[in-house]
Amino acid sequence: MSPVPHPPQPSSLPPSSAPTEPEPQPQQIPQHYNRPHAKPARKPILRLELRDLSSPGTQSFLRLLHASTALQEAVNTVLHCLYAHRPAHCIPPTRSVTLILRSMGGVAYTTGLDIDDDHKEIHFSTDYIESIPEGKLKEEMRGVIVHEMVHCWQWNALGTAPGGLIEGIADWVRLKAGLGPPHWRRHADGNWDSGYERTGYFLEWLEGKYGEDVVRRINEELQHCRYEEEDFWSKCCGKHVKSLWEEYRESLGGGKDGNDTDGPAE
Ligand SMILES: [Zn+2]
Description:
By secondary structure, this protein is α/β, with parallel strands linked by helices.
């Protein structure tokens, strides 16, 4: 059984493409992420399930990605970013991750099996894959897989963490992996827990201020205790998160959208 009675909630990812973006440059996950200084107690089984081999999305996936490499790299990236130099008992006891490619609305979501939450499923939409321009498809699929893989390995304060923080941590790892889509921007509007890249960039800024371990410490704090906003942030950063968000907004040039030119990704 998992020590987490409430698994991360299934989360759907907003589409990541915008029609007027420049072509992305090929990006590499930093090499050292593939030698993570973090090992789970048990090496997870990685599986792939293809619901319809005839769908163009499935075919593009198979053509552009080596599934076993892509999944293992995503696991390594997540373990490096969230658990480097942490002992195995700090890492959730995820035993398997199954990537399921199927036709569905939305982009992707992650869920645990009802019968045993240590077994995770990442559902990835073949319709979405089909909708992405060829030039950016490979990086986009890798980015989505990394984002969803975070949900397979992150803590969630016994189910009480704000959804925006959970999503922000997932996109922060995606940023660290160099797999942020080209249209992502730092936003100074909204709230710190608006989620996705808004919160992801905020966490990146916190790293600059409080050291590169800060997101690891945030995730660690989410392991055992229920989320109480004031206590939580004063433990992690010594300040209320609303003050931190204000400082972040000021660093982007005040209350206006810093260098934001696109709308929100949702
Ligand atoms: Zn998510």
